[in-house]
Amino acid sequence: xxxxxxxxxxxxxxxxxxxxxxxxxxxxxxxxxxxxxxxxxxxxxxxxxxxxxxxxxxxxxxxxxxxxxxxxxxxxxxxxxxxxxxxxxxxxxxxxxxxxxxxxxxxxxxxxxxxxxxxxxxxxxxxxxxxxxxxxxxxxxxxxxxxxxxxxxxxxxxxxxxxxxxxxxxxxxxxxxxxxxxxxxxxxxxxxxxxxxxxxxxxxxxxxxxxxxxxxxxxxxxxxxxxxxxxxxxxx
Length: 236
Known about the structure:
Elements: E1 7-11, H1 16-27, E2 31-36, E3 47-51, H2 57-71, E4 76-79, H3 94-122, E5 125-130, H4 145-165, E6 170-177, H5 190-194, H6 205-217, E7 225-228
Parallel strand pairs: 1-2, 1-4, 2-3, 4-5, 5-6, 6-7
């Protein structure tokens, strides 16, 4: 099996940001392993689709094992899968809390453990989390403490892992989006959501994919959180 071409594993890969990220890596001729609950098989021999709920610890183990079996290596992991439930803090249910933690934190934890094990054997690797600008720039128009709890945890973990593994060839970074045109937002809300950004527009999925590819190329960058948020992080 040839290992000349790199391999990217992408969670939440079936739609929205994940679909765009898969496309960006395939256009770079990466072999890609994509996973999500609703993903379907592909005729592309260099794209392996693995259905599964990332909140299940066995999914992350199974996805990395399949990537190694099919393509022989794991060069990049994009932790894109996530749940976003905006709303007043006092209105959240216990199930909301459990669901968001299971996907956003547990899902990240288990697949990243297995990916790092593979990357350590290779002596190299790159991991990117998708977080949110709301972690560092709360907005009263978008109350979303569950996002802050979980994506804030990913932000902290990004820096911690970057330092822990810097000397062993593994870089770890994150991209913090603003509001992006994905199925999360219905078209009738676009104008109102766009107005939350200083650039007065919503982001496109391609904007996030572009930032991830920058991090892929930026071999002297680790522990970085790139804000792709239309200027939200700078203020209003």
